[in-house]
Design a protein that fits this description.
Layout lengths: L4 H6 L3 H5 L3 H10 L10 H14 L8 H11 L16 H42 L2 H4 L5 H4 L2 H4 L11 H15 L6 H6 L5 H7 L3 H4 L2 H11 L4 H10 L8 H18 L5 H15 L3 H10 L4 H14 L22 H16 L17 H12 L7 E3 L6 H12 L8 E8 L6 E7 L7 E3 L10 E9 L5 E12 L4 E9 L9 E3 L1 H4 L30 E3 L5 H6 L45 H10 L4 H5 L10 E6 L2 E6 L10 E5 L5 H9 L9 H9 L2 E2 L3 H10 L2 H6 L23 E7 L11 E7 L5 E6 L4 H15 L4 E4 L8 H9 L3 E4 L9 H21 L3 H13 L10 H6 L6 H10 L9 H34 L13 E8 L2 E16 L4 E5 L7 E5 L5
Parallel strand pairs: 3-8, 4-7, 12-13, 14-17, 17-18
Antiparallel strand pairs: 1-9, 2-3, 2-6, 4-8, 5-6, 6-7, 10-11, 11-12, 14-15, 15-16, 19-20, 20-21, 21-22
Helix pairs in contact: 3-4, 12-14, 15-16, 18-19, 28-29, 33-34
Pfam families: Integrase_H2C2 (PF17921), Integrase_p58_C (PF22938), rve (PF00665), SCAN (PF02023)
GO molecular function: nucleic acid binding; zinc ion binding
Protein name: Gypsy retrotransposon integrase-like protein 1
Length: 1014
């Protein structure tokens, strides 16, 4: 029988207590505030409850006098007279004696019944006397509390919970009505259990009000804002949660509606009608009128309409712009057909007639004028133009002082990596300036907690584990932050810490956001700002003065032949760290051949001197005014500049071309401008050569163009569509001798999710027998993969070597630990080179095709047909081996459907039984013969494939320390790859595999096939 606390509270008894379990006894103890020891037994707990509840008056102790009397009356009858011990009595005498004893017993029972009747009569007389005596008129000083023991019933009052105030009063009234407590003691019993805010508001009441239960109830409900409006909002905003059933949601809605109606004292249909009409009426009113109606506590719709009209006439100026209340969550589209259109038209026309007093345009006001805001922003960024001399003044802004004080705290060793930026919470336009430290040795960006008001709304829902120098792991929550800096800008997930290790730094920018960028890119701005970083500690009087370099009109006319392209788009993309000052009278020896960052401020005189000092142009000077053997080419000196003259001949209509003979110091700049510039487009050798030849010439121009284009880093990384890296000669995988000595594993997926939750396939294949196995998995986690592999190994034995790709699940520590425990060597294939385990990849293609056909034909889940399709693959012949995988593993032909049909048609019976020794010897001989044939067939197939593959292959090799470009995946997109680098070759593993150092990647070294290198 199930124990119910409410029934025990209404009628407590020792018998019910003895039938309870220990858990029920603990619930009773908590309900009646009985402290239970920790290691108490059930019997001890029961005795403790009996004592405590008896002390509280819940269990009545039987009166000894009455009990003794009842024991005499209702107990065992008095001992009968002893039967005579004579043994010579006859049967008749014995019967007579027995009848006498029965009569005596019957008389005793009648006496007991009479005594019970007298007791009931006395109780009835006493009750009638108590009911008939008017206590109020006879003794005014006597109260109902004199006959009602409050102390005995306090324990029956349920404890007060501030989270369930409304339901608490309902439970209290139900218990009081059941136990027939006098109404005038309800307030006293209730105040004994109140706590928190309810107790505070009750103590503020007067003595007269504190004795009234209704006043206390209304005061407590008002203190917890449980007024009719609060119940209405709870009912309207109540929505179903994800963990809630529809039945629970319906009960919650029902309870909230009843509480709303009960708070409004609605008991009839007319009252409910007025309640709903009033709610709909208030939803269409401005907020001020709704507040006024709530203060007046109006109930009917007619009274509310009259009061609203009076309030509107009294406060005309308040409603210049109507303000709506927040609509209810329910969709209410029923409205007046004319009123809604009229209001919408009126508001639209009022909005269109607004005119801005600044730009005099309609549709907005001056407070939101975009022209005025744009002008204010320009004024804030504009700095006064310097005249003659520039003097750096210390900033007077308080915020700037704060930033400078922060930067002053930073150690000088970090200042080259310090920059400024701003950040804000995602969704909040208010940004906060921050000091950023670029940390190239960290993988997680961190921000100080006090920079922004982080909350639950900005929390990503996940944490990140940060591993520091102390080799301890710290958990840091991730928040969405909007970052604006010279490195990166956008919305990112940033880890938040209370403090950062570098004083004065607000944000540590790590490699997860900045990547390989160490310093911010130079930025060209329209209005240059004053460099406030230059300061003199001596004081403001000793601030340095810088002369303003202004060029007058006379100087411009003097140097009119010098064209300065340093500030135009013709300048190189990577300017030198220190500018090269080119003077007119400077010697030509300052131009070195390896200076590829030469500024284009060279004049005509410098060009002439460079040509005269260049020994490689001596043959050209010797051919001056002479015609070469081609007759169309000649050299001449025009105004001191050595030129090359080319004429097409008499049979052509083209004009002759004059080309400047470029000296050796200027050739790299000409090549870079013709090939590397943004307007050059990194064209090929032929087009670059033709472009230079139109204006310039020097001996060996074609070979220099070829070398320059072939060594261009951008062209090597990007490549061209028609340029394909020649494949290296094929190296066939050596033939394995024993079955399941070398196992290849891989994963397929994600596939369509089945009813059982499977979405991936773990494929396993023996490299020797090509025996495949496919295990459906729900996820690609390493634990599920390890369980499937152990199950496979328990059937076919532990392999010596297992091969896989470089997936994260196969490269995890758990997988490596399991393989080490099983003494299995783990080898990985080259990244992005599926040919390393081509047998398994080819099986993937076959398996996907079979699964697609199975699902199309049978309309069943793919994991249901996986065992059937594996049987089909295992029992068919493998082309490279010449045998089926089942034949090589089991040594006999499996019984397939075709063999079953053949046996049925021919009525074949099972073969004759042979001796075990004969069977074993023949089995081993047959299996040995099959193995020899399969290895020979596989070697022949590999030789044929190598001959076909090596027709277009080219043998290549790299040495340790060579710089190569590697085909690697794009960061953030694993399915896209491009050539990156250059990287250094660490060592050579085989004829086709190399270990490459990739310091800017997550994996510092990786194994790459030679076909991925160039």
């Amino acid at each position: 029988m199930e124990f119910k606390l409410e029934e025990f509270t209404l009628s407590p008894s020792i018998d019910t207590l003895k039938k309870c379990k220990k858990a029920d006894l603990i619930v009773i103890a908590e309900s009646f505030d009985v402290v239970v020891p920790v290691n108490i037994t059930k019997q001890g707990l029961m005795e403790l409850l009996i004592d405590k509840l008896t002390e509280k008056g819940l269990f009545k102790e039987p009166a000894p006098a009455v009990g003794a009397e009842l024991g005499v009356l209702a107990g065992t009858p008095a001992p009968l007279h002893a039967l005579p011990t004579q043994t010579g009595m006859s049967a008749e005498e014995l019967k007579l004696t027995l009848c006498i004893r029965e009569v005596e017993v019957r008389n005793r029972e009648l006496e007991v019944e009479a005594m019970h009747l007298r007791l009931k009569a006395l109780e009835m007389e006493r009750g009638a006397a108590v009911a008939a005596s008017p206590s109020a008129t006879q003794s005014p000083s006597q109260s109902p509390q004199d006959s009602f023991d409050v102390s005995r019933h306090i324990a029956l009052v349920p404890p007060f919970r501030e989270s369930e105030v409304d339901s608490y009063f309902n439970a209290f009234e139900r218990i009081a009505a059941t136990l027939k407590w006098p109404k005038n003691v309800w307030s006293l019993l209730l105040q004994c259990k109140l706590v928190g805010k309810a107790q505070e508001v009750c103590t503020s009441l007067s003595i007269e009000d504190s004795l009234k239960y209704d006043v206390i109830k209304a005061t407590v409900l008002r203190a917890y804002q449980l007024v009719p409006e609060a119940y209405r909002q709870k009912f309207r905003k109540c929505e179903k949660t994800a963990t809630q059933t529809y039945g629970e949601f319906a009960r919650e809605k029902d309870a909230l509606f009843d509480k709303w109606c009960q708070a409004c004292k609605v008991e009839t249909f007319d009252g409910l009608r007025e309640l709903l009409l009033m709610e709909e009426f208030k939803n269409q009113l401005p907020v001020k009128i709704v507040i006024y109606l709530n203060e007046q506590k109006v109930v009917t719709l007619a009274d509310a309409a009259v009061l609203a009209d009076e309030f509107t006439l009294t406060h005309v100026s308040v409603f210049s712009s109507p303000v709506r209340r927040e609509p209810v969550s329910t969709d209410r589209r029923v409205r007046s057909p004319n009123g809604a259109r009229r209001n919408a038209t009126a508001s639209a026309s009022a909005r269109e007639t607004r005119e801005c007093f600044y730009c005099h345009k309609q549709g907005h006001l001056i407070s939101v004028c975009p022209t005025l805001k744009r002008k204010a922003q320009i004024k804030q960024t504009k700095t006064p133009a310097p005249v003659n001399r520039i003097q750096i003044q210390p900033p007077s802004d308080k915020s700037t002082k704060v930033v400078e004080s922060k930067k002053a705290q930073i150690d000088s060793i970090f200042r080259p990596f310090i920059s400024d930026g701003s950040c804000s919470i995602v969704g909040n336009e208010k940004s906060v300036p921050i000091t950023i430290l670029r940390d190239t040795g960290a993988m997680q960006s961190l921000i100080r907690c006090s920079v922004l008001p982080f909350s639950v709304q900005s929390y990503c829902g996940t944490d990140v584990l940060v591993w520091g120098v102390k080799m301890s792991v710290i958990r840091a929550p991730l928040h969405f932050v909007q970052i604006r800096s010279q490195f990166v800008s956008g919305e990112f997930q940033i880890a938040v810490r209370p403090e950062l290790p570098i004083a004065g730094v607000d944000f540590i920018l790590s490699n997860d956001l900045a990547g390989g960028k160490v310093f911010p890119s130079p930025e060209v701005i329209e209005n240059p700002t004053v460099n406030t970083s230059v300061s003199d500690p001596a004081g403001p009087d000793s601030l340095p003065l810088f002369p303003m370099c202004a060029i007058t009109r006379a100087q411009a006319r003097k140097f009119g032949d010098v064209v300065d392209l340093s500030d135009s788009f013709m300048s190189p993309s990577d300017p030198p760290s220190s500018p090269i000052e080119c003077e007119i009278n400077a010697p030509v020896t300052e131009f070195q051949p390896d200076d590829t960052t030469l500024m284009l401020t060279v004049g005509k005189e410098q060009l002439i001197k460079a040509q005269e000092n260049d020994s490689t142009l001596s043959p050209c000077f010797s051919l001056e005014h002479k015609t070469t053997c081609e007759k169309s080419v000649s050299y001449l000196v025009d105004d001191g500049v050595l030129m090359r003259h080319w004429s097409p001949g008499s049979g052509f209509t083209h004009q002759s071309v004059r080309q400047i003979v470029v000296p050796q110091p200027f050739r790299p700049q000409v090549l870079s401008l013709a090939h590397d510039h943004n307007m050059s487009g990194h064209l090929g050798v032929r087009k670059t050569y033709q472009r230079i030849l139109r204006y310039f010439f020097w001996l060996g121009l074609k070979s220099d163009v070829v070398k320059f284009c072939c060594s261009c880093h951008t062209c090597q990384i990007s490549g061209k569509p028609n340029q394909v890296i020649p494949a290296a000669p094929l190296k066939p995988i050596p033939v394995i001798g024993e079955p399941f000595e070398h196992v290849i594993v891989d994963c397929v997926g994600p596939l369509p999710k089945t009813k059982s939750g499977n979405q991936y396939i773990l494929t396993i294949m023996c490299a020797a027998t090509r025996y495949p196995e496919a295990v459906p998995l729900r996820s690609l986690k390493v634990r599920g993969i390890v369980k499937a592999l152990v199950k496979f190994f328990s059937t076919f034995g532990l392999p010596r070597r297992i091969q896989s790709d470089q997936g994260s699940n196969f490269m995890s520590k758990i997988f490596a630990q399991v393989m080490a425990e099983l003494n299995v060597k783990h080898s990985t294939s080259s990244a992005y080179h599926p040919e390393s385990q081509g047998a398994l990849e080819r099986f993937h293609q076959t398996l996907k095709t079979l699964l697609r056909k199975f699902c199309t034909e049978s309309n069943r889940e793919w994991d249901e047909g996986l065992p059937l399709l594996l049987f089909a693959v295992r029992e068919t012949m493998q082309e490279s081996l010449g045998f089926s995988p089942s034949d090589l593993v089991f040594g006999h032909t499996v019984r397939s459907p075709l063999r079953l049909l053949r046996e049925k048609w021919l009525s074949e019976k099972s073969g004759s039984r042979e001796n075990v020794l004969d069977y074993v010897s023949s089995f081993r001989e047959r299996l040995h013969h099959a193995w020899g044939l399969s290895r020979a067939s596989l070697s022949a197939a590999q030789s044929k494939m190598k001959v076909r593959y090596d027709k277009k292959s080219v043998a290549r090799a790299f040495q340790s320390g060579d710089r190569v470009l590697v085909l690697l995946p794009v960061v953030g997109s694993a399915l896209q790859a491009k050539f990156s680098g250059p990287y250094l070759v660490d060592r050579q593993l085989s004829e086709t595999d190399y270990v490459i150092r990739t310091p800017d990647r997550r994996k510092k070294t990786r194994v790459c096939h030679i076909n991925m290198l160039k």
